[in-house]
Each structure stands twice: as structure tokens, then as C-alpha cells.
Amino acid sequence: MNNPNFSKIYIGGTWVDSHGNDTIDVVNPSTEQVIASVPDGTAEDVAVAVAAAREAFDSWSRTPVAERAAFLRAIAEGMTERLDDLAEAISSEMGAPRDFSRTMQVPMPINSFSRAADVVEGFDFEREELGATILREPVGVIGAITPWNYPLHQVAAKVAYALAAGNTVVVKPSEVAPLSAVLLTEIIDSVGLPAGVFNLVSGRGPIVGEAIAAHPDVDMVSFTGSVAGGTRVSEVASKTVKRVALELGGKSANVVLADADLKEVMPHAIQWSMINSGQTCSALTRLLVPRSQLEDVERAAKEIAESLALGHPDDEGAQLGPLVSAAQRDRVRGFIDRAVAEGARLVTGGSGSVEGTSGYFVRPTVFSDVTTEMEIHREEVFGPVLAIEPYDDEDDAVRIANDSIYGLGGSVWSKDPERARTIAGRLRTGQVMVNGGQFNPNAPFGGYKQSGVGREFGTLGLEEFLETKALMY
Questions:
Q1: In what side-by-side order are the strands of the sheet with 253-256?
Q2: CB-CB neighbours of 299 under 10 Å
Q3: What is the pLDDT of residues 317-357, one digit of tens each?
Q4: Is residue 3 over pLDDT 70?
């Protein structure tokens, strides 16, 4: 990885020492070995970074759109040139198979920077409406707090569109998987982005994250993570009445209507329940099927899940890597054991250890006869665990699908596209795949209910980072 500077934080266009002396070890979840250490940042680090971002804001916000877009494209080009380094970092810090890192974990953030450039160049920052001139202006200093499951993608989702809109940013990457964010910072530094426009402070949520959310000169916080984390960010940020955008959890339902072709449905269903080893907020972790087809669905789910290859990131053909940490592995095993205790029927997998390998692995696990009273129906597991839930008719399917505090993703299958579209319209969720529709990294992403507030990507993603001003003459 070309000797990245993991021992520093990045403030005001310069790699600097943290004001604190402590560090955070980064553990490779495949080997269980420490592979790097990053600064355990402090509130004082945040204060300095925010001051740098505030100082840079006036000039950056007035930088012509074409120049801002050119910087974003240069960052995308730099990421493309270092794709192998970025993929290696992601696989090492959070365990994704190398092929998945190369084809998804890195290309999606590259797309975010290049697409943000396109969106901002086509955006109308001024329009006339009912006798007033409506201006869209950057919010100011953005605090970006990001998770470990897609550690580069989530940084890019916030940074690319915030910078495109004319904001400056202070980023706190996940302390569990910060290495790819450091490499991105090297790339940003190499393209000559003006000092203070982008700042990176590594550290822990209760210290660095809360300092960002509380700082009076941070105008907006964009947070991706758990509901508990988002609730805390909102609480802290409310004391200075700043805008908060949240992308939180999910417990997304995959609704299979009676006329769907199970041979087409089931490979997609298993893939999207266990993508990134199930560590995906929009994963389709509840499979809703007609009660009359339950036995056929279980048989197919068992066969496909048991065919998935677990392995270390560099293993040839590995489809699922380890979970990100020992704590996450143990958390997922706890969900599995409690599901059994509550009466869910184990179709395959389980909480037992995976023999013959180091690392924080959990076997692909499928439950059936899951009911709405069970924890595994309600709570986000964030591991390779699928809950099959039978329903009696389409109204029952919609009821079960919407019986959740979350509303992030979803899916509907039917041989009749209009029928599928109708059911999709009844799901209270931010995105719905229809008949195997693929994830679109440029479509608005965000959720209903406790899945969050606001949207990322595309025009709506840009608008999240803009204020509205009316001029009246």
C-alpha cells in the first residue's frame, strides 16, 4: 500500500500529529492479527479541524462549479489508479473477499466522485418562482461520521456530494476500518485540493464523533451507522440546532408473490441476504413466501446457502469473508442462538465455529417459520442470516413486510410486472428492487421510519448539502 501515513491525522492540507498520545489497533478479521494503528483522536483535534474547514469555506463555496467538479474527477482518477491498494486495504481491515472489494467496494466510491461532478455541473443553483429568486447555497462545514461495513463507499457518499455543493468537511472514519479512508486522504492531498476543504480525524465515536456533532461551527452532520448511534448524534447536535442526515439500519423484506419463478428468485434472494457477509444495511434479510411454497423455498435456500464458499479475502473463489470483529461475530451468534430458543426452525448453518480456519467467521444461516413476534424478525442481525417468513395472502405479505421499525430496502417478485409494481408501492421503504432489479449507486438511498432521515446520491444527495435562500425585490 505504498507506506500510507496511518500514524497521522489530516488537517488544513497537512498530515499532523494528534493532540492525544493513544492509538487504536486495526485488526485483520481473517487473521485476527493487528495490521496497523491509527491515532485515537481527541476533541481538540476536532476543534482544529473544524477551524480549518471554517476558514476554507468562504473561498471553496465561491469556487466555480466547473473547478469543483474537476477536483472531484481528479480524485476519482486517483482512486482508479490506486484501485488495488484500496481493495487491499478494505479486504484487510474488514474482511471482504478481494474480488468483492475490487468489483464493488472500490468502484462504487469512484462512481460517487465522478457522478457528483456530473450532477453538480447540471444542477440549477438559481431559479425564479412566483416572483422570488430561489438560491441554493452550500450549508457550510459538514461533519461526516462513517461506518465500517462499506468503509470507503460511505465516506465517498458524503464527501463527494458535500464538496460538490461547495461545503468543506471534517470526516471521522470508523475506528474499526479506517485504513481505506487514510488512502483516500492521500489521494485527495495529491490532487491539490485547497487546504482545509477536506479534513480527517480518526478516533472513537464517543470522543471524536460527539465532538463533531456538538461543535457550534459544524453546520451539519451526516451520519451512517446504528439507530443507537444516530439517536445519540441527533441528541448532541440538537443543542446547536444543526441539520442532521442519518442513514441507519434496515430489516428489509423480499416479497415473493405466488406466481414468481423460484428458480429465478432464490439465487438472488440468498445473494442479497448475505451480501458482504450480511453486513449490509439494505440486505434483504427477510424472505416472505406463500405458505404453500414454504417447503420448496426452504429446500432451495438450504442448497444455495450451503454452496457459498467461506474464505479469507485472497482465497480463490471465496464468496463470504469473516465478520468484521470478534464482537460482531459473537453478536451474530447470539442472535442465532436466541432465534432457536424462540422457536425459529434452523434450516442450515448455526452458531457453531467454522472449523479449520482462523478469523471471525459465521456460517451462512437460514431460519424458517419465523413470526413477527421473534427477535430475528424485528432486529437487524448484520450477519449472514436469513429469516424465511410464510404469509397467507398478499395483504398479509404487505402487513408482515411493513411490520418493522425500519424502512430502508425491499424487493418484490412476480411474473406480472404491474402486480409487482403495485406491491412495491405499498412497501414503506426507501428503495425496492422489482423482479431482481440491480442496486443503482446513483439512485436516492435512504429510508423511512427509523432507517434514517434524508437521501444520499444523485440530485437528492447533492440537495442534502444545500441551503435555500429566497430573494425578494
A1: 345-348, 365-368, 385-391, 286-290, 253-256, 410-413, 433-434
A2: 13
A3: 999 999 999 999 999 999 999 999 999 999 999 999 887 77
A4: no
Q: What percent of the chain has pLDDT over 90?
A: 97
Spatial strand order in the sheet of 141-145: 14-16, 9-11, 198-200, 168-172, 141-145, 220-224, 243-247, 452-453
The pLDDT tens digits for 129-171 are: 999 999 999 999 999 999 999 999 999 999 999 999 999 999 9
Whole-model pTM?
0.96
What is residue 18's predicted lDDT score, i.e. its pLDDT?
97
State residue 2's pLDDT score: 55
* Model pLDDT for residues 100-125, shown as the tens digit of each residue: 999 999 999 999 999 999 999 999 99
Q: Are 256 and 291 in contact (CB under 8 A)?
A: no
User: Average model confidence (pLDDT) for the chain?
Assistant: 97
Distance CA 336, CA 187 (A): 41
pLDDT in tens, 235-244: 999 999 999 9
The 3-state secondary structure of the chain reads CCCCCCCCEEECCEEECCCCCCEEEEEECCCCEEEEEEECCCHHHHHHHHHHHHHHHHHHHCCCHHHHHHHHHHHHHHHHHCHHHHHHHHHHHHCCCHHHHHHHHCHHHHHHHHHHHHHHHCCCCEEEECCEEEEEEECCEEEEECCCCCCCHHHHHHHHHHHHHCCEEEEECCCCCCHHHHHHHHHHHHCCCCCCCEEECCCCHHHHHHHHHHCCCCCEEEEECCHHHHHHHHHHHHCCCCEEEEECCCCCEEEECCCCCHHHHHHHHHHHHHHHHHCCCCCCCEEEEEHHHHHHHHHHHHHHHHHCCECCCCCCCCCECCCCCHHHHHHHHHHHHHHHHHCCEEEECCCCCCCCCCCCCCCCEEEECCCCCCHHHHCCCCCCEEEEEEECCHHHHHHHHHCCCEECCEEEECCCHHHHHHHHHHCCCCCCEECCCCCCCCCCECCEECCEECCECHHHHHHCCEEEEEEEC
Among the listed residues 394, 366, 390, 389, the one whose alpha carbon sits nearest the alpha carbon of residue 377? 389
Average pLDDT over residues 451-459: 97
Pairing assessment for the beta strands 433-434 and 286-290 based on DSSP bridges: unpaired
Amino acid at 434: V
- The residue type found at 29 is P
Q: Could you give the residue numbers annotated as active site?
A: 247, 281
* Calpha distance 289→287 (Å, rounded): 6
